[in-house]
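job 3f2a | input accepted
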Amino acid sequence: MSHDHHDHGHHHDGHGHDHHHDGHGHGRVPEAFTSKRELAAGAGRGRVLFFDAFSGIAGDMTIAALADLGVAPAVFEAAWSALPIEGYRVHFGHAARSGIVGCKVDVELDGTQPSRTYRDIATMLASASLTPEVKRLAQAIFRRLAESEAEMHRMPIDEVHFHEVGAVDAIVDVVGAAAGIAHLQAEVVLSPLPMGHGFVRAQHGVLPLPAPATVRCLTGVPTYGVELEAELVTPTGAAIAATIARRFARWPHLLPEHVGFGVGTKRFPDRPNLLRVVLGAAEAAEPTGLTHVVVEANVDDMTGELAGHAIACLLDAGALDAWAIPTTTKKGRPALTLCALGPAERGDHLANVLMRETTTIGVRFQPVSRRERPRETVEVSTDYGRIPVKVSGGPYGPAQVKPEFDHCAELAAAACVPVREVIRAALAAYASG
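job 3f2a | predicted structure (433 res):
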């Protein structure tokens, strides 16, 4: 069975970009390419970058889509120039599919390239003068890719080979994608990925589609099948997508601001071979129903110790928050209103906990809806150790950045310094990263 594929394949299977063996240089970008706009560093901060992968995803299409969106070729070139590889040239150009003009990326090679193992590439990335975020992303993508190959071949991860041309393809694609994502600093949302079917001839023989390494890379990523004999998602594309995505949606609530298209080489009968990326503000979804509940009760005959214990039990039982409010009840008695917020489906369970752990003889239910900032947790390195930092974004002004207090307190005690010094170090490390 014949094998249709995207521009890129990363490894031993030998399918990939349109390669031309007449290039020289070190990743130089021809001056002919011009973007529709140029997005400054951090242009995506507090915004959503949506990958609409209706025809799948490959590494080169990712770079092309980001370039068409507005990430200047110089951003990619700066990252590639930090790598100790030569004998290749990356060409940015324009191409059309179904009348839609986007960016297309090709790699030109000067002769053959050495075979590289994952250990070789990991060592190369560790010593390269990349920015910390680009290096972190590239290392994470390659790690996922190599783990998938190692599992498929039942071999040590350090011995996974990226053969000949594929080694340069993978390095260019992964480092370029990492550079583009780090430049924008947006929250990445990925659409479910389409899975074609058929077979592909690889270095080790004939493999089923989607390729085993692709499926392993996509652990935890939504996918769906399509009636197309083609490789729509390459292993490198899968590793990139799964690593950079923070959440998944068919189409997120979004106020589009910029759009880019990455063009693939193959032509499919039922869809244009394009990867669309959309950058915009994350519009909060209007509540479509009352999704949460507040369970509460007034008590005038229990101690503060019992109230504190009841709050802890409510949180352990799945409450998103729990609290006590001073109040007065009938006959002017001082009392507390004990409250718990939780998902609607947990309402009865929270009510049972509230009645079990307090002296109340009844509880109230108040159905509510809830809106929250999109959030993620990142780790930063400080002189005191690594610290998780919660970052809450969305179209609500500057992101809220908060180091995890308990972790900071533990490190402060170990270093015999005030906890505020550890918090300050974590915030400084996040700001500089």
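job 3f2a | The longest helix spans residues 132-153.
job 3f2a | closed
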